[in-house]
Design brief:
Elements: H1 2-11, H2 16-38, H3 41-65, E1 90-92, E2 108-110, H4 113-125, E3 132-136, H5 143-152, E4 155-159, E5 174-176, E6 186-189, E7 193-196, H6 200-207, E8 213-219, H7 225-237, E9 242-251, H8 255-267, E10 270-277, E11 287-294, H9 295-306
Parallel strand pairs: 3-4, 3-8, 4-5, 8-9
Antiparallel strand pairs: 1-2, 6-7, 9-11, 10-11
Helix pairs in contact: 1-2, 3-9, 7-8
């Protein structure tokens, strides 16, 4: 409309025919806008999702055609950019009592916080199980667990086999001194810690959570992601595990492992909705924060934001 209006203003005095053309096209554009507004909200969101699909396909094709010899450690995450937008994404995990006061390395970008909260309140009203959050990797930084407890009200489980002192967040989460990775593998970490790893599937089985949906899966486990996540994504793709969103810090490693992780996420129909290079302790390239989301929950969160239902 604005482009047509500008063209009309510059030519209105020179041609009556041009003015007639302007009137017709301005009215046509306005009618098109009105017609678009008459399309049901769900259908408009479907058009947005079609764009997301095109972006993901383009990203997948670009990553598949990338010459691995041309990617350095500093650039190995460059082909993997977000392909979707969550209309209500927020940095979540404040150490204060303010929800939107979340800054620094500890908080993560999540989608649809209010949707999670409202569904959790409804579940409690019906005496059903609450929302479920896994926080893998702690180092006794409990900002995220505290915010989940205060603003979402979810049942939270925190996992870290490296803590040397008592977990500080017992008020907010149930702690498990388990390391995540390839089931049964012996893991050595910084010469001071050794443990037998558990897969996420094994953890869910142990805790009796296989019939539940993980609403938020937060992971920062110093490269365990390459052992833990591809098998997890394959179980999601097979419909054996349900997860709504994943906030994960990925670390520089051999490029084939990086590619496999993202390909597995694509097989599971997880969309990337946020990417942030970690400049606090990783020089901006040694580790990168990614937020993934299931197609179904992104649709639900965006519909709630735009359509109100």
């Amino acid at each position: 409309v604005f482009g047509i209006l500008a063209l009309c203003i510059t030519s209105i005095v020179s041609s009556n025919n041009r003015f007639s053309w302007c009137q017709q096209n301005s009215l046509s554009s306005s009618r098109q806008k009105q017609d678009d507004m008459m399309i049901p909200c769900s259908q408009r969101l479907q058009k947005v999702e079609e764009q997301y699909n095109k972006r993901r396909q383009a990203r997948m094709e670009a990553a598949a055609s990338t010459n691995v010899h041309n990617l350095t450690k500093q650039t190995q995450f460059d082909p993997f950019e977000p392909d979707a937008v969550c209309f209500t994404e927020e940095r979540f995990g404040s150490d204060s009592e303010q929800r939107y006061d979340a800054f620094g390395d500890g908080p993560k970008f999540i989608c649809g916080a209010d949707v999670i909260t409202n569904k959790n309140l409804e579940a409690k009203r019906r005496n059903e199980k609450p929302c479920l959050v896994y926080s893998i990797g702690s180092n006794n930084d409990i900002q995220f667990e505290k915010s989940v407890h205060g603003f979402l009200g979810c049942e939270t489980h925190t996992f870290d086999p490296t803590l040397k002192e008592e977990f500080k967040g017992k008020e907010y989460a149930t702690f498990h001194p388990w390391g995540i990775g390839k089931d049964g593998a012996t893991v050595k970490f910084r010469k001071s810690h050794t443990w037998t790893a558990k897969s996420i599937e094994s953890v869910m089985n142990t805790l009796g959570h296989m019939d539940r949906t993980i609403d938020i899966l937060k992971i920062d486990c110093e490269r365990c992601e390459y052992d833990a996540m591809p098998p997890f994504f394959d179980l999601v793709a097979a419909g054996k595990i349900r997860v709504h969103q994943i906030q994960i810090e990925v670390h520089v490693t051999e490029l084939p492992s990086v590619i496999e992780l993202f390909q597995a996420a694509d097989r599971a129909k997880m969309r990337i909705f946020h990417k942030e290079r970690n400049g606090w302790g990783c020089m901006g390239w040694r580790c990168v924060e990614y937020s993934f989301i299931s197609e179904s929950f992104l649709r639900e969160a965006n519909r709630a934001a735009v359509c109100g239902t």
